Model the fold of this input.
Amino acid sequence: MSVDVVMVVKNGSPHLRECLNSLYANVPVNKLIVVDGGSEDGTLSIVRRYSRTLILNDDGGTRATARQKGIESVETDWFMFLDSDVILSPNWFARVSPYMSIPSIGAVQGVDLPLCDEVQIFNRSVSRIWKNTQPFNLGLPVVKGIFTGDTLIRREAVAGIRIPPYLHVYEDRYIRSYIEKRGYKWVVAPEAACIHYTRRKSLDAYYLGFIDTSLNNDGMKGSLPHLLKNAAVCLPGMLVNPRVTAKCLKLLLWNLVGSLKAISTKPVLDKGLSSDIAGY
Done:
């Protein structure tokens, strides 16, 4: 069975060739649907070298609008979300495909093995010296089992989905919640994995602050302790890893900007969104 593959990307050239080589070596690709957010680094030139590709423009959009466009372009019964900074392990598809024959399963993902994550490096550095220090975390807790970077999804399981367009972050949680509300299971295949060259981005930090503060009726009263806790963690971090700590402080600043934006605009988010993204 061949599958359509949806890739949401913007300036993803650093690992894109390795990513796509692992895709075409492991997965029977019907069509590669690339939803591009306005790349300026040669990303699309790399994509065009591969067969059976469809490029969609989403310049100025979010991950939510990009994933929505990708889903709406899918034609196969199952499709795959693949991030541009993910490298699939050998025999990835062969290891996850048995799950596709189980009617109750709506999505199956591989195990995410993150590399080069500045925040993880920071937390490890600090914890070596200050054992009881709380980890630096900009948004809702990261949980295992919600990662759309190497995930197969049954098209019927997301029929009719309308991802809120402002979900530049947490859109993966929303998709999982939607699938499970339709009565399907989201499972992790422990026998399949991907290497994930993850990088934390300022725009992600901004949207984390914006959405988390918007969902908190107390506004800054709820966000301020969270921001102060992260700032306090950065103080010892400057002693053990100044470069990575500086990156974390930059992310924290953008997180604060997002929170202030939410307080000033008081956006009305979709009813029930809090339970959709925070319940995992």
